[in-house]
Amino acid sequence: MSKETTDNSLRKNRLGVLGIVFFVVAASAPLVGMTGAVPIAILAGNGAAAPGAYLLVGITLILFSVGFTTMTSKVTNAGAFFAYVGRGLGKNWGIGSAFASVVGYVTIQLAIYGFFGGLLAYQINADIGIDMPWYVWALVAWILVTGLSLLSVDVGAKVLGTLMALEVLSLFIAGIAILANHSGSMDFAASFSPMNIFAGGFEGGAGIAIAFALASFIGFEATAIYGEESKDPKRAVPRATYWAIGLITVLFTVVSFAMVTGLGAANVVGEVAGISEGGLNPAAVLFSLVETNVGHWLVIVMEWLVVSSLFAGLLAFQNANSRYIYALGRAGVLPKSFGTTNATGAPTGGVIVTSALAVIVIVVFTVFELDPIANLFFWMSAITAVAIMLVEILVSIAVIRYFMKNPGTHWFKAIIAPVLSVLMLVVGEYLLMSRFNLLSGLAPTPEEAGNAWALSSLGWFLVLLPFVALVIGFIWGLINKHDEGKLSEDVLS
Description:
- The chain is built from 20 helices and no strands.
- 74% of the residues lie in helices and 0% in strands.
- It is mainly alpha-helical.
């Protein structure tokens, strides 16, 4: 592949560590996870030990990040996972992982469009009295996100930085206020002892809680995607990764522990069930605690910050998607027209493809009158969790193989941490897949929703979709011989 021209490359030195962190934390949408996933993890999972599940997942992902970030000294590429797996396991596995990654990132953005449209339609109608269908608000967001993603990447980082700062600040205010008001009721053993974290086993409550916790971290791994546009990527990407995982872990752990403490560890499951109407309104759990311990004003602020959190997630994943497709186009895996940039350095081809896919799906779900949250959000976000976990496993295996063939890196970074992360991530993937019916709502019958591996036909299709994409990508790599030279510079050199 020939060297990129100035007019066809991402602009360098646009993002510092904080800019990358803004994109990554915004992608994880912590306020959405705190109001949606945490109450379900408590109710259907391991009860008061849900904070421990989030802490455990954070530690697992830090182990993954040791090997992941070590590869940044060898590869700096907008299609990070694609390039890392290709470098360690070969071109065909790299392309396979790329296809699985695209499935993961496209589906999570589609999920957020559904949640954003459905939530805003309800909230605007309730607060202002304007009754518009969900797809109108989803399309408004689509226009704004497409426009912003065509601008310089640092413009998007500034927008996300503002939204993320407000979101994180509101959560810390809520968590600290609840803990301060219930300081005498804190039960660390109930939330963090291994015996309680793993209560019910992987087939029961512990597995459910860990699966929801894993899903809440999706997006942190996107740090390396911005390596080409960062200042000093070999330092910025590792630092941003650790900062992002650390911040997300602390946020989820502290605030979920505050929720357990505020409701009382001994009776937390019953309290969550009562407040959330049996899990039908999980956001009511955090909002009721904020109402009591801080004030109604913060409830109003947080209700609107949930909307801005979703918008921030849309913009973050739009940028991640478009850069992944750009990298695949540049490498010759996808048509070359996808690997183009505009005058500001934004990946035009990737933005157009990503936006086109989004609007097509929004139209399809609208025509078939499918629910934006119960269908679009839950189906797509469940696929994402399985897809990204699959690729993380491949990345860790690729790191091990690469450094075994190219010794010289510290043994812990090159072998021990990646091996531990593979073991823990495989367990995590098993939990996500076995609990796919809870994540997606696609159990054969409502009575089977809590049973492991109980899936409808559509559920089985969706849970296996990332693996199908992996196989298709691998086969495409086998038959796409004429692109070997184009791929070598991005992946194999």
